[in-house]
Amino acid sequence: MGKTDTKAILGAEATDTTLEAQRVAAFAKFQPTYYFDAVKEMQIGGATWRVLATADIEDTEDSDFLGVVARWTSEAEILIPPVQRTEVLDEQPCGTTDELWLGEGIEEISRTHRTLHPKRLDKDKPLKEEVVVVRVCNDVLARFIPRTQSAADIPFYYPKVSEFAFGYLEPTTSSDGGADHAPWQLAVLVQELETGATVATKKHKGIWKDMVKKLYKWTATARLGYQKRQVHDVLVDHEAYIAKYQELKGKYADYWVKNWPEQTDPRKFVFEDIAIASWLICLWAQEPGKGSPSFVDLGCGNGLLVSLLAAEGFKGHGVDQCSRKVWSAFKPTVDLRVSTLEPFDYTADADWIIGNHADELVPWIPLIAAKSPKTKFVVIPCCPHDLSGKKMNFATVAGQSKYHAYVEHISRIMGTCGFVAEKEFLRIPSTKNVALVGRSRTGKADMGEVDQMIQDGKNAFVARVPDSVKNEIRLEKSRKRKLEASVE
Ligand SMILES: C[S@@+](CC[C@H](N)C(=O)[O-])C[C@H]1O[C@@H](n2cnc3c(N)ncnc32)[C@H](O)[C@@H]1O
């Protein structure tokens, strides 16, 4: 592997002074208001909440807030340091909410059952908790509800509440009298078990102050994430990724570099696919449930990524319209299928769809996933295509590359399909290194628009002609030319 490849994969933190300046500017605007002494209450949904802290936040959207909540739901240890790890037991994209929360304008976005495993097992038992994310008119509320037999079972590090919540709240009025330009508000809310118990000590207050600060910083940074340039390790922990990469490289790189049966340079594919497999494995380790998720790799090309994931114990298959020589070098258990997909009619029978540089299939993948309530996906866009399968350039804004305009375009499709567009710059040699992850649903899919896009795409889509057919046509033409020449 050349120096550049090593740097791309293991690379040092990218420096981006503009981003840093934006971050500093956003954090400087953090001016929380605490309601520890003067009690403030708020009606949201069917409940009255005690408000502990609020902070105005500019230039964000509820998808930023939802992205933060999704991450904190699967990794409570980020927010609550005494927690060692979070075990997500099950996740429901939507469902019927409890009675208090039924009503006009109330919509449940997700409901997750999880267990918080403490660092000090001698002090605390694991805590069962439910995280319910609801939209109440335009407000979004993430409710954290401990499921204990009695208040005495709540561990020492957890607030003494029947539930607490983070709110992303619509502005009501602003200083100029209108709500249009007023900033949205982040809020920390509680349902106390005993009045005043949550703010009884300096330590309690410190915990709430820390929470609202983290909520503000993470939400503000999520928005900057759409503008920033290369920032790695947002979705997957750097150390875990590097450890996995080194492990897989040790197991597979040497063999495939030496035994690559294709004409192509093995180093171009082997290290890149090992890096992507390592990153996916780390990402999937965050998934709820015990078993490994299943996958389908659409437009899998040489199939190396499928073979690496299969060798690491993941069940899945790859599909491509052209088989490759290297396919026969894989173990027979590596499931690679030749098929020209018509993406408008395709339904995935796997937990995750992968679309790694999958050309014209990339813009279709969020639409395919939108039609299937359980399917999540990762796309790594490459050359810009529209839904007709044609190459297409999308409008750029000042300083934006065509590639990043395309990434934004795919993110927008994800938004229409009701996915939080989580973004990661992968440490791979390719400069087309943005992974977009669709694993959290916003509950705001515009299914009318999705159906329309599928219908319009279906009318326009023309699958590419497989290379084998192109060769056949070329050969046929050359045979014809030779025949004509011999007749003359
Ligand atoms: C740029 S290659 C990427 C291959 C592989 N994922 C990688 O990163 O090495 C895109 C692949 O998508 C496949 N492809 C494009 N449209 C397809 C379709 N409609 N059905 C099946 N495969 C398709 C092509 O055959 C090609 O192998």
Automatic annotation (TrEMBL):
Swiss-Prot/TrEMBL catalytic activity: uridine(44) in tRNA(Ser) + S-adenosyl-L-methionine = 2'-O-methyluridine(44) in tRNA(Ser) + S-adenosyl-L-homocysteine + H(+)
Protein's cellular compartments: Cytoplasm
GO terms for cellular component: cytoplasm
Biological processes per GO annotation: tRNA methylation
Name recorded for this polypeptide: tRNA (uracil-O(2)-)-methyltransferase
Domain of life: Eukaryota
Physiological role: Adenosyl-L-methionine (AdoMet)-dependent tRNA (uracil-O(2)-)-methyltransferase.
EC assignment: 2.1.1.211
GO MF terms, alphabetically ordered: tRNA(Ser) (uridine(44)-2'-O-)-methyltransferase activity
Keywords: Cytoplasm, Methyltransferase, S-adenosyl-L-methionine, Transferase, tRNA processing
Top-level class of the enzyme under EC nomenclature: transferase
Record-stated family: Belongs to the TRM44 family.
The UniProt record lists the keyword Ribosomal protein: no
